[in-house]
From TrEMBL:
Pfam family, one: MMR_HSR1
InterPro entries: G_ENGA, GTP-bd, GTPase_Der, KH_dom-like, KH_dom-like_a/b, P-loop_NTPase, Small_GTP-bd
One of the record's GO molecular function terms: GTP binding
GO biological process: ribosome biogenesis
Membership in a protein family: Belongs to the TRAFAC class TrmE-Era-EngA-EngB-Septin-like GTPase superfamily. EngA (Der) GTPase family.
Residues the record lists as binding GTP 1: 8-15, 55-59, 116-119
Keywords of this entry: GTP-binding, Nucleotide-binding, Repeat, Ribosome biogenesis
PROSITE patterns, per database record: G_ENGA (PS51712)
Stated name of the protein: GTPase Der
Self-association and partners: Associates with the 50S ribosomal subunit.
Taxonomic lineage of the native organism: Bacteria, Pseudomonadati, Campylobacterota, Epsilonproteobacteria, Campylobacterales
Source organism per UniProt: Campylobacter sputorum subsp. sputorum
Length: 462
C-alpha cells in the first residue's frame, strides 16, 4: 500500500492535518514545539482509495534529541511514495524551509507544498509569498477550520492506486447467489422484520449541550441526572419509550470533550460512546444553539457519519429565537457539515419541552427510510434517467457502463452497481448518483451506500 508522509519543521500543524485526514484523533497535538517525536502511522481512506498516512517528527536540529528525530523523519521520507511538505502560513517563507523542500525534491517523488494556518484574508495575502518555492502543487489550507483540505485530498487521490477496499473481484453471479433471488430482489433470509424491532436511538454531542435534558423530555421522566457541570453523564443511560406501538430505545451517551480536556474515567466514556453507536440505528446529534459551532461539534458529527447511521441534527436550547435565526444557523451547519447534507435539522428546548414531541414522528420517518427496500425496477429507472441526464465520464477513452442496479441490504440502503469497469467509477459520480436517488426516493436522514461490482467472474477490464 502506498505511503504518504507529512513533513515539516515543528509546530506547522502536521499532527493536526494527520488527525484531520484520518478523521479521528490519533496524534497528540499541542502548541509545544516538538510534541511529535516518533512517527505515527495509520491506514486511511481518501474517498475510495486507501493509503498509509505517516505523521513525522519536526525537522529541527536545535538539540541532539531533535537531530535524531529529523534523521528518522528523512529516512521515512525516502521510503514514502508521496511527500506533503508543510509550512506555517502565519510566517514569511523561511530559508530553512526552502532548503528542506529542495532537498526533498531530489528524492524524485510526488511532492506538494502545504501552507497551513491560512485563517484570514491577511494570511491569504501573505501566502502568495510561498510561490517563491516554485512548487506546482501548492495548497493553502487551514486545518483548524477544515478549509482547503479537500483540494489536497483530491491531489492525493489522483496519485493513489485504484481502490482495493471493495471486493470488485467477486462476480455479480456470486453476488446474486449470496444476496438476491433470480429476479434481483433481496433474499428473504437476509431480510429482518424491522417492523418488529426496537428502534435504537443514540443521543450524542459534546459536554453540556443538553443531552440528558433531551432524554428526560423524550421519555417524560427524570431518568438522567441533569447538571450545569460539564461531563455529568459518564456511563450511558438507557431508557425505552413506546410511541405509536413502536418501542424506542434511547441511549444518552457521555458528552465528548476536546482531547486535552478528557480526564480519568471520561476516556473510557468516549470509547463506550463509539461502541454504542456501532449498535444504533439513529443518532440524535445535539448542538447547543446558544453557542457557535465548534471543531469538536464537527468531529462528533464525523463519528456519527462513520457508523453509517440515520441522523437527525437537534438544535437544543432554542429559547427566544426566531425563524430567521434558524435559517442562519441551519445554513452554517450545512456549510460546515457537508457530509451530513441528508440529515434534517430540528430546533427544540429540552428543558422547556418545546417541539420535543416532533422528534417521535421524525424518528419513525428516518427509520422507515433507513430500513426501506427500493423496488428493483424503480431503482433502475432512476439510475438510467440519471445516466441519460449526465453520462458517466470515460476513463482514458474507455467507456464505463452501469448495466444494472440492485439493493442488496438495508439499514442503511446498500446498492450494488453492476458494471464493466467498477474501479473506474469516480467518487464524484457516485455522489451524483446518490443525489439523484434522493430526488426519486425518500432517503431523508440516511446515507446511501453505492458499491460498484463486476458483471461476471471472467470478465476483465479491457
Amino acid at each position: 500500500m502506498q505511503k504518504v508522509i507529512l513533513i515539516g519543521r515543528p509546530n506547522v500543524g502536521k499532527s493536526s492535518l494527520f488527525n484531520r485526514l484520518a478523521s479521528k484523533r490519533i496524534a497528540i497535538t499541542s502548541d509545544v514545539s516538538g510534541t511529535t517525536r516518533d512517527t505515527n502511522k495509520t491506514e486511511i481512506e481518501i474517498f475510495d482509495k486507501n493509503c498509509i498516512l505517516i505523521d513525522s517528527g519536526g525537522l529541527d536540529d536545535s538539540s541532539e534529541l531533535f537531530k535524531n528525530v529529523a534523521k528518522k523523519t528523512l529516512d521515512e521520507a525516502k521510503n514514502a511514495d508521496i511527500i506533503v511538505f508543510m509550512v506555517d502560513g502565519k510566517l514569511m517563507p523561511q530559508d530553512e524551509d526552502k532548503m528542506l523542500f529542495y532537498s526533498l525534491c531530489k528524492l524524485n517523488k510526488p511532492i506538494s507544498l502545504v501552507v497551513n494556518k491560512v485563517d484570514s484574508k491577511k494570511d491569504e495575502e501573505r501566502s502568495w509569498e510561498f510561490n517563491s518555492f516554485g512548487c506546482v502543487n501548492t495548497f493553502c489550507i487551514s486545518v483548524s477550520h477544515n478549509a482547503g483540505v479537500d483540494e489536497l485530498k483530491e491531489w492525493l487521490y489522483k496519485l493513489l492506486d485504484k481502490a482495493q477496499k471493495i471486493d470488485d473481484e467477486e462476480s455479480f453471479d456470486d453476488f446474486l447467489e449470496n444476496y438476491c433471488t433470480d429476479d434481483g430482489e433481496i433474499l428473504k433470509e437476509k431480510n429482518e422484520d424491522y417492523n418488529q424491532k426496537n428502534i435504537k436511538v443514540g443521543i450524542i454531542g459534546r459536554v453540556n449541550v443538553g443531552k440528558s435534558s433531551l432524554l428526560n423530555a423524550l421519555v417524560k421522566d427524570s431518568r438522567s441526572v441533569v447538571s450545569s457541570v460539564a461531563g455529568t453523564t459518564i456511563d450511558p443511560v438507557n431508557e425505552t419509550y413506546i410511541y405509536n406501538d413502536r418501542v424506542f430505545e434511547f441511549v444518552d451517551t457521555a458528552g465528548i470533550r476536546k482531547r486535552g480536556k478528557i480526564e480519568g474515567i471520561e476516556k473510557f466514556a468516549l470509547n463506550r460512546t463509539e461502541k454504542i453507536l456501532e449498535n444504533t440505528d439513529i443518532a440524535l446529534l445535539v448542538l447547543d444553539s446558544s453557542e457557535p459551532l465548534s471543531e469538536l461539534d464537527e468531529r462528533i458529527a464525523g463519528v456519527a457519519s462513520k457508523f453509517e447511521l440515520g441522523i437527525i441534527i437537534v438544535l437544543n436550547k432554542w429559547e427566544n429565537k426566531n425563524e430567521k435565526e434558524f435559517d442562519e444557523i441551519s445554513s452554517e451547519i450545512r456549510n460546515k457539515f457537508k457530509f451530513l447534507s441528508y440529515a434534517p435539522i430540528i430546533s427544540v428546548s429540552a428543558l422547556g419541552g418545546k417541539r420535543v414531541h416532533k422528534l417521535y414522528d421524525l424518528i419513525l420517518e428516518i427509520y422507515k427510510n433507513f430500513t426501506q427496500k427500493i423496488q428493483t425496477s424503480k431503482l433502475n429507472e432512476a439510475i438510467t434517467s440519471a445516466i441519460k441526464e449526465h453520462p458517466i465520464p470515460r476513463e482514458k477513452g474507455k467507456v464505463v457502463k452501469i448495466y444494472y442496479a440492485v439493493q442488496f441490504d438495508s439499514a442503511p440502503p446498500k446498492i450494488a452497481l453492476v458494471m464493466n469497469r467498477p474501479k473506474s467509477l469516480h467518487f464524484s459520480y457516485k455522489r451524483y448518483l446518490a443525489n439523484k436517488l434522493r430526488e426519486s426516493f425518500n432517503l431523508t436522514g440516511v446515507p446511501v451506500i453505492l458499491i460498484p461490482k463486476n458483471k461476471n467472474k471472467d470478465e476483465e477490464e479491457k
